[in-house]
Write a structure and sequence with these properties.
The complex is a heterodimer. Chain A is of the alpha/beta class. Chain A is built from 15 helices and 11 strands. The chains are: A alpha/beta, B mainly alpha. At the A-B interface, α9, α10, α11, α12 and α13 of A face α1 and α2 of B.
């Protein structure tokens, strides 16, 4: 059962070939048997999952099932889930049993999906390798000496290893697309405001966006359909109709114009990754897509601007973790300031502290214009690059990540090298556009991701473009050795 | 941009972060290299550019000023480090 897609599993459930309880037991058993090699889960919610599966079976029997009813999924441990431990990968929230559901969790529950567990992640989603997690790194199922990417590394590894058919992630600078690329799966970051941020522990509020990770574009379409939609509890949620993302998957791509930004194929790109991406582009040409050379001239400014905007917003958002109302509190505080400082000093890991300090510095008196305001202006330039490009083309393609999965520990000593893992993904967050990563081949036996960037609210087109590629290639069907 | 120990201590205080003394140098070095990366923004003139606060320039939605949330104090305080009689306890701040 574990090799079936969500679409196939839903059909099997409806045909009565197996029950959700049987499917859920098989999934939980597989996680128990194999996740020791990966550490992709922080919490496996066995009891809740089996109870949800029982209720899903009732819905199935009553003929009230939707496309996700009875399907086990994993939630990134950044989404609050009522009554379930929600750590955000941090010691700060080691004992935090969320008292409410995030909108994303609520929507999956309403769809009748089964919560298999909460996946490991970089602490507060700050990282590109899953090595900043307080709960130990996740390993990449394709080679367990390498990282799965981050910050949604647990969600990506669990799907790639067939532990769950689908999962959720969040993407602030590439945290869905980069791990999807490094683990050889399909991941989608929607338009900013498409999926509610309510109950999703905030990192950088003007960039954060939740999306699905799955083994195919079709499954990603099904998951996104459940996640997307207006939510009055998220002040930046956008009222925009949610289409049936599965309805347009089969559309013909003949005549589609695809922009290839020359900046995405230059300095820093691993040559083997480049070859795989070029081959994927050739495959698209064969199915009638027209390639257009374009330029996104401010690409090189994306990482610098991001490392002002994201830390500034994180320093503000993470000020709520003060040891008073929830989360970690130090022992024997001598006064209130000591309580704040030691609770935060003990509760946060080094990468989170770095970003809080950069943000605090950038927002401190006298520096606002030089940092945050400057970054917001650069952000406009980056966004304008995309706006001009989309006057000429329908979607943009390039590599998701400049390299394949790297070795554990290889980049942990140098934050800057780690930050450059996201050079092709960060600009998309700054502009608020939707982006996807799909499996596009292999380099050195490790998966390569092709990134597809769309215009605002063009998720259906991205999924269509991805699905058509998956009709003529089988990269997305490859299974890591040992997880067959 | 180079930050020294004094800068890091000041920033850590502003951020209410306890940083162990032996780690200060490493933070000073890391934070300085991040600020060097950030300084690449200065290679472009942005005097005439309007800052971008929101990807689609949406404005803040307003709602009617009325109570919509229900009282869940007991549930929320169940996960608090220290509470007494419905109050969050912290070290004494007024002598």
């Amino acid at each position: 059962m574990h090799n079936k897609t969500i679409a196939q599993l839903a059909a099997g459930l409806r045909a009565g070939e197996y029950s959700s309880q049987e499917l859920t037991r098989a999934i939980l058993d597989r996680i128990a048997r194999l996740d020791g090699r990966l550490n992709s889960f922080i919490t496996v919610s066995d009891e809740l999952a089996l109870e949800q599966a029982r209720l899903a079976d009732q819905r199935l029997a009553a003929g009230e099932a939707g496309p996700l009813t009875g399907i086990p999924v994993a939630q990134k441990d950044i989404f609050c889930s009522d009554g379930v431990l929600t750590t955000c990968g941090s010691r700060m929230l080691e004992n935090f049993v969320a008292p409410y559901d995030a909108t994303v969790v609520e929507r999956f529950n309403a769809a009748g999906a089964v919560l298999a567990g909460k996946t490991n992640m970089d602490e507060f989603a700050m990282g590109s390798s899953n090595e900043t997690s307080y709960y130990d790194p996740v390993r990449n199922p394709w080679n367990t000496d390498t990282v799965p990417g981050g910050s949604s590394g647990g969600s990506a590894a669990a799907v790639a290893a067939r532990l769950v058919p689908g999962s959720t992630g969040t993407d602030t600078g590439g945290s869905i697309r980069q791990p999807a690329a490094l683990c050889g799966i399909t991941g989608l970051k929607p338009t900013y405001g498409r999926v509610s941020r309510y109950g999703m522990i905030a990192f950088a509020s003007s960039l954060d966006q939740a999306g699905p990770l799955a083994r195919s574009a079709e499954d990603a379409a099904i998951l996104l359909g459940a996640m997307a939609g207006f939510d009055e509890r998220d002040s930046t949620s956008i009222e925009h109709p949610v289409p049936d993302y599965t309805a347009t998957l089969a559309n013909d791509l003949k005549g589609l114009k695809v922009g290839l930004p020359r900046e995405y194929f230059s300095v820093g790109l691993d040559s083997e990754v480049g070859k795989a991406v070029e081959a994927a582009i050739d495959e698209y040409k064969r199915i009638g897509v027209e390639m257009v050379d374009i330029s996104l001239p401010n690409t090189h400014l994306a990482v610098p601007a991001y490392y002002v905007v994201a830390p500034a917003e994180c320093s503000s958002n993470l000020s709520r973790f003060d040891g008073v109302r929830f989360g970690h509190r130090c022992d024997n505080p001598k006064d209130l300031e000591d309580l704040y400082k030691r609770s935060r000093g003990e509760g946060f890991g080094p990468e989170v502290k770095r970003r809080i300090m950069i943000g605090t510095y950038a927002l401190s008196a006298g520096y606002y214009d030089a940092y945050y305001l400057k970054a917001q202006k650069v952000r406009r330039l980056i966004s304008d690059d995309f706006r001009q490009a989309f006057e000429q083309v329908d979607v943009i393609m390039g590599p998701t990540s400049p390299s394949v999965a790297f070795k554990l520990g290889e980049r942990t000593d140098d934050p800057i090298t780690m930050y450059l893992s996201d050079i092709y993904t960060i600009a998309v967050n700054l502009a608020g556009l939707p982006g996807m990563s799909i499996p596009a081949g292999f380099a050195n036996q490790l998966p390569v991701g092709l990134q597809i960037i769309g215009n605002y609210f063009d998720e259906a087109r991205l999924l269509n473009v991805a699905h058509q590629f998956q009709q003529v290639t089988d990269y997305h069907q490859q299974i890591p050795v040992g997880f067959e | 941009m180079s930050l020294d120990k004094t800068d890091v201590n000041k920033i850590a205080h502003l951020a209410r972060l306890d940083i162990a003394a032996p780690d200060i140098d490493v933070y000073a070095s890391n934070l300085s290299s991040i600020l060097d990366l950030v300084a690449q923004m200065n290679s472009v003139d942005t005097d005439a550019v309007t800052p971008m606060a929101h990807p689609t320039d949406a404005v803040q939605r307003l709602r009617e000023d009325k109570v919509t949330a229900v009282d869940q104090r007991e549930k929320f305080q169940a996960i608090a480090p220290q509470v007494d009689a419905g109050l969050y306890l912290v070290p004494k701040v007024i002598e």
